[in-house]
Design goal:
The protein is mainly α. It folds into 2 domains: about 1-130, Histone, subunit A, CATH 1.10.20; about 150-209. The chain is built from 6 helices and 2 strands. It has a two-stranded parallel sheet. It is extended, with a radius of gyration of 28 Å.
């Protein structure tokens, strides 16, 4: 899709500064908003749009992110009502039905319906089956991203003799250099903070005089 709405850089910057929800001010949520923009652009492209305005893209992305956050909160609430800490697929389906209750869906009047045959789920299945597949432009890592972790190794693996009654299959103690480096960094941090506090006290005394 093409950017057909903005004519200069100043207007682009102004559109980026338009109303954002408070929860998306954090850097950790910028990635979620960027993904939402790509998803919205792909959905618009799949239904026939060929260009967009940044203000419209920002607004639709904001609505998408708010919808997903509300769905997560609703699913978590349903799980808590059932005495569970984590949500399952039925909590999500029930959350989708609650969010769609204002518009209505097939089978909404049947209070004894099975969630597995929910009309909301059927609508999603039909949309996914009929819509053209628009793959993401880049490979996205699975969430959560698991990094390689190097363990300390047991006493037996490091061929070290454990002290006292410690079994050899337990993890060995870190090298003494590790403790030395951590203590040095901690001391430097404390000295800097103490220096800052001393400077603030001096400034307060000067103000009082």
């Amino acid at each position: 899709m093409k950017d057909g709405g903005l004519e200069n850089k100043n207007e682009l910057e102004n559109s980026k500064k338009q109303s954002k929800p408070y929860k998306f001010y954090r850097k950790s949520d910028d990635f979620a908003l960027a993904i939402a923009k790509v998803v919205v652009a792909q959905v618009c492209e799949s239904v026939g749009f060929q260009s967009f305005q940044h203000s419209a893209l920002e607004t639709l992305s904001d609505v998408t992110a708010r919808y997903i956050c509300t769905l997560g909160k609703t699913s978590n609430f349903n799980a808590n009502l059932a005495g569970r800490l984590e949500s399952n697929v039925f909590d999500i389906i029930q959350g989708l039905e609650e969010l769609e209750s204002g518009l209505g869906f097939v089978g909404a009047s049947d209070v004894n319906r099975c969630l597995a045959h929910s009309g909301v789920v059927k609508d999603i299945v039909h949309f996914v089956g009929d819509a053209a597949d628009v793959p993401f432009a880049y490979d996205v890592s699975r969430f959560p991203v698991v990094k390689e972790r190097k363990g300390m190794g047991s006493f037996w693996e490091k061929r070290e003799e454990p002290h006292g009654d410690i079994p050899c299959w337990l993890s060995a103690f870190p090298d003494p250099e590790t403790y030395a480096a951590q203590s040095t960094a901690r001391n430097e941090t404390m000295s800097v903070s103490n220096g800052v506090k001393t400077g603030l006290v001096r400034i307060e005394r000067k103000i009082e005089r």
